[in-house]
Amino acid sequence: MAFAIYYFKDETVEVGETDWMSAEDQQHTSSEMTTLRPRLEDEDGWINVKWDKGRKRKHGPAFFPAKVLMISDNYSDLCQKREEFIKGVDIWNQTLKRKTKPNSRWMKDMENKDERPTNQQKSKKATCTPKEASDQIIEGLKKELMAKQASLESNTEKEESSDEDLLPRNWSKAQQKIKELKRENKRLKEGNVKEILDAMRELPVVVAKMKEVIENFNLKLVSDDLVCLLPGSNVEVPRRKLNSLRTANPSVDIGDLAVLVYGRETLSCSSLTGRQSGAHKDLESKPQLDNTKLDAIIGHALSKFPDISVQDVRRIIRKKCNNESYTKQATAKKTM
Known about the structure:
Layout: E1 3-8, E2 13-17, H1 23-28, E3 47-50, E4 63-72, H2 75-86, H3 104-115, H4 119-127, H5 130-224, E5 226-228, E6 236-238, H6 239-243, H7 250-262, H8 264-268, H9 291-304, H10 310-335
Antiparallel strand pairs: 1-2, 1-4, 3-4, 5-6
Helix pairs in contact: 7-9, 7-10
């Protein structure tokens, strides 16, 4: 059985089974997540997890948005990782270092092998006395030292002579090069000042063009990634924003979906039916919301939350229109 560390939106961290994720989310998760640190501040990557967390429903456990921090078959190891994560430890960069000891028997064999004399050494020992062998070694070392000393002295003399010969010529060339560099630096400064002033005059135009390019690019990204809100409907919304509406509260989810489809300005200036309110007969009736978009929202909400009815969805959208209208009026009063 596999387990996972879940990070919920209320910043709590828990360890649970991977079966508590939906089948679709289990396909997108894998054991590779043990080495990848998720971006907790992003709106993408949230999945629904069956977790009571002190709340109970009549028809089964509740679903809460969470992110998977790590997956493993070792439950106790994940519990320890959870405690370390809460303390601020980077649990993804930890590596186990295995300590190995050298084979003592092999080390002894190598030492004995180094200590064994070769056949040539044995023959020398047999033909030379200890004193003669030591004298030969000392004489060889003296010759090597004398040869190295002579080589170092000759190299030093050559370097000193070459430096003395090249110093006057190099100094005059260096002075000439310095003068040329000063003239070039002065010319570049004068030219750069003029170029900088010209560039500053053109800067507002460049900034305006950059903004236009960025806006067009963002519009293209949004238009290229649209998804139908309901099969057979022509009501389309950005896929990324639709996927970010992952919450177990139907009121919040449907209200945010209405803002995504209509926009806050349209909701604040419209009503569900377009008829005049009985409580405010002195006010003019507001225009009715687009029925095609309304039907798409209702169909999407019923497929996502089977326990609610059409009347529940209409009531939530009506309340969202009233709230947006009240917020708009309050903002207008503050600015006056």
